[in-house]
Amino acid sequence: HHPSSPPSVKALNLLKAAVSAPYPASKPDAPPLRFNLDIVESTPPTPDQLRTILSYLPSASASPAPLSTLLSSHPSAPSGSEQPRTADAVTKLASSNPSALKWPIVVDWDSGKASIGDVEGVKSILEELRRKRDGEANGEEENKSKGWFS
């Protein structure tokens, strides 16, 4: 989470509401979602976390999303040949210039889902959690790898 990023603030408010109030809010008798909300503020993910997060992003191909997916269009962010080429370089850049990253970075580590800089992606993650809670998940997740040990 980065407090100066409006999408990050909006996403954080959505996540907090989902664990503390009826979800969805349009159904007052619905229970809140149950998940561990761990907020890391203004600190970029580690290089290993970045690689994993990129592999969790929805993509049309089997390969992880490119590192450039993490970079913002902020004027202080590098572009073209100046962009970092490794996850270590992205973490180093984000440590010195948090505005260079797209915020929020939201990860459902248990389901292998992530959203970068996109409030709609956060809503999608929450909706998937609601579907699982309400028994509406269509079973696709059962056949999907959950990590290294599956």
Describe the structure.
It is found in: Mitochondrion. Putative mitochondrial redox protein which could be involved in the reduction of small toxic molecules. Its main location: mitochondrion. This protein has helices at residues 6-20, 47-56, 87-96, 119-133, and strands at residues 105-108, 113-116. With 150 residues, it is mainly alpha-helical. The protein has one domain (6-132). It has a two-stranded antiparallel sheet. The longest helix has 15 residues, at 6-20.
% residues in beta strands: 5-15%
Low-confidence runs: 141-146
Straight-line distance between termini: 30 Å
Total number of strands: 2
Please bin the fraction of helical residues: 25-40%
Largest sheet: 2 strands, antiparallel
Secondary-structure map:
Blueprint: H1 6-20, H2 47-56, H3 87-96, E1 105-108, E2 113-116, H4 119-133
Antiparallel strand pairs: 1-2
Task: Name the descriptors.
150 residues; 4 helices; 2 strands; Thioredoxin-like protein; Fmp46
Quick summary:
Helix content is 33%, strand content 5%. By secondary structure, it is mainly alpha-helical. Residues 63-93, 128-150 are annotated as: Disordered.
